[in-house]
Inverse folding.
């Protein structure tokens, strides 16, 4: 059986991503440092001393630590790692030194791919906070650093890693310039925040140069869960008790407003060859959402509000939009409504939601009832076609 391609995997950013930022932007800039509780944490001093430890960004890799027991339910990704276990905390507290070698060096990432039966991976950032910086100039500098770093990291893997560039859309002019630069560097795709900057929705004309260039170059634009744009304090909802369970279960709501904007407010119709990827929101909700958009479209017309749409939301989705899934049974059951050509599987390595290192077993179970041609499309053919990969050399 041909090896699969992950359309959604991640990196753990190295120190080079943050080089020189503190000197230019002071305490607003993220940097790698130790805190009272974390080793090698990504810290933004202006937001407090607490940081995101890099050891926590590679948790899936701990599933194969010495003495670990790997457990999971049929058709599901492995159970989450117990973050209170002493041996887990010991490894996390090592920072970069506790990560699997492939998360530090691109040349070793193929070891982790081979354990999981992968031919290749498309790589998203691990530090989602890079999309929510308040200062546009800092965002531009950080994204440029990141794009240089991930190019070098992926280049070490002999054609089995493909980094997705980050675009600083908070400054649309700078984002278009950076898009042109990363196209020249050989990137096959790029990321934009899953929510537009608060003062400027994605249908604003200022983004037109980005959309036009991405369409011309055939560069898909991805929107990953958690990559929200900065929201000013004045526009944030009142503080309430945080319900992390509810937040996780309703993560797709953060992309739904963006999809309504792109599909119904003219962007997709004006740029019909521009492709968008909705990543790690899963997809079991999409068929229902597209139906609601169609009903909303009819209601708007009923009261005399015209929208810049010549096609239905489902037609636009199937023409231009893709979604990544992991072990999402509802998406597979509604694949004909979503579009079989519009679904792509990703292993999400090395994050907690990853199917690694059990991806092949998970796919065998969750896709047991699918025709082989549907499985091939979702796990390999669609992503190869979207990003222009030659399948020869990736098939075995």
């Amino acid at each position: 059986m041909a090896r699969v391609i992950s359309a959604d995997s991640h990196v753990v950013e190295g120190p080079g991503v943050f080089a020189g930022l503190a000197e230019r932007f002071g305490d607003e800039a993220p940097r790698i440092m130790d805190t009272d509780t974390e080793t090698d944490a990504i810290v933004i001093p202006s937001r407090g001393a607490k940081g995101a430890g890099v050891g926590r960004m590679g948790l899936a890799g701990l599933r194969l630590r010495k003495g670990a027991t790997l457990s999971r339910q049929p058709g599901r990704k492995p159970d989450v790692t117990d973050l209170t276990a002493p041996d887990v905390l010991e490894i996390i507290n090592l920072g970069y030194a506790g990560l699997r070698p492939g998360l530090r060096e691109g040349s070793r990432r193929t070891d982790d791919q081979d354990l999981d039966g992968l031919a290749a991976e498309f790589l998203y950032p691990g530090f989602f906070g890079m999309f929510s910086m308040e200062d546009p100039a800092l965002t531009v500098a950080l994204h440029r650093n990141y794009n240089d770093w991930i190019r070098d990291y992926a280049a070490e893997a002999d054609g089995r890693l493909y980094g997705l560039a980050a675009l600083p859309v908070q400054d649309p002019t700078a984002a278009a310039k950076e898009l042109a630069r990363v196209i020249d560097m050989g990137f096959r795709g790029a990321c934009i925040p899953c929510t537009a900057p608060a003062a400027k929705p994605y249908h604003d004309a200022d983004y037109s140069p980005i959309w036009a260039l991405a369409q011309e170059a055939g560069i898909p634009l991805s929107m990953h869960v958690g990559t929200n744009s900065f929201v000013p304090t004045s526009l944030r909802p009142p503080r309430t008790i945080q319900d992390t369970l509810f937040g996780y279960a309703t993560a797709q709501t953060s992309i739904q407003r963006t999809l309504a904007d792109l599909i119904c407010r003219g962007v997709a119709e004006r740029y019909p060859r521009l492709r968008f990827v909705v990543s790690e929101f899963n997809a079991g909700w999409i068929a229902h959402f597209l139906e609601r958009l169609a009903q909303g479209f009819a209601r708007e017309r009923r009261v005399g509000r015209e929208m810049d749409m010549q096609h239905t939301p489902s037609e636009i989705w199937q023409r231009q939009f893709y979604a990544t899934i992991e072990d999402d049974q509802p998406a597979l059951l509604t694949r004909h409504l979503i579009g079989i050509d519009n679904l792509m599987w990703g292993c999400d390595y090395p994050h907690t939601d990853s199917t690694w290192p059990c991806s092949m077993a998970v796919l065998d179970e969750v896709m047991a009832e699918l025709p082989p041609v549907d499985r091939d499309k979702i796990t390999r053919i669609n992503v190869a076609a979207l990003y222009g990969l030659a399948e020869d050399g990736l098939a075995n």
User: Anything to note?
Assistant: The CA atoms of residues 27 and 46 lie 5 Å apart. The first helix runs from residue 21 to 25. The mean pLDDT is 93. The chain has one domain: 4-11+109-235+242-387.
